[in-house]
């Protein structure tokens, strides 16, 4: 950012750097599926690492956003956001792996067209509402408590 926009403040430069840390798990999963490699152990490791990378990049973005807005960074707030994000990730993975197959099997006999698509969207919206309740939905807009 110093090269592209030399007059910008440091907080702005850090924020742009934080934004660029995010990766796309969806694209990685699609490439692995197109290569017919999605069921290999190596693919699971790649996708797991990409998810962890995205969670870490959200934490970096929250820190940089707090720095840009308030000018300070609270170690306690970083720890709280990290803990809530880890619990949310573990909980959503647990619910997704344990509950989703059972519900889809049960609903498959109902004759609903595009059941997997509708269930996936519904589950995503449910997780979004849980994330909003936990204070993680707009992690980059979250301000430290005053």
End-to-end distance, in Å?
Answer: 30 Å
Q: Classify the beta-strand content into a percent band.
A: under 5%
Q: What would you call the structural class?
A: mainly alpha
Kindly give the count of domains. Answer: 2
Account of the protein in words:
It contains 6 helices and no strands. Mean pLDDT is about 80; it is low at about 140-145. It has helices spanning about 10-20, 25-35, 40-70, 75-100, 100-105, 115-135. The chain is an all-alpha fold and about 150 residues long. The radius of gyration is 19 Å and the shape is globular. The longest helix has 30 residues, at about 40-70. It folds into 2 domains: about 1-75; about 75-145.
Throw out a few tags for this protein.
single chain; mainly alpha
Could you provide a short overview of the structure?
The protein has 146 residues and is mainly α. The chain is built from 6 helices and no strands.
């Amino acid at each position: 950012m110093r090269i592209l926009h030399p007059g910008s403040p440091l907080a702005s430069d850090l924020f742009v750097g934080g934004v660029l840390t995010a990766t796309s798990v969806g694209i990685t999963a699609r490439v692995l599926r197109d290569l017919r490699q999605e069921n290999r152990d190596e693919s699971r490791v790649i996708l797991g690492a990409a998810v962890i990378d995205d969670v870490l990049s959200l934490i970096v973005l929250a820190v940089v956003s707090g720095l840009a807005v308030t000018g300070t960074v609270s170690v306690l707030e970083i720890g709280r956001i990290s803990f809530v994000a880890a619990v949310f990730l573990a909980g959503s993975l647990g619910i997704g792996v344990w509950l989703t197959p059972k519900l889809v099997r049960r609903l498959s006999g109902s004759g609903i067209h595009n059941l997997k698509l509708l269930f996936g969207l519904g589950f995503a919206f449910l997780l979004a509402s849980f994330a909003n309740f936990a204070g993680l939905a707009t992690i980059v807009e979250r301000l430290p408590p005053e």
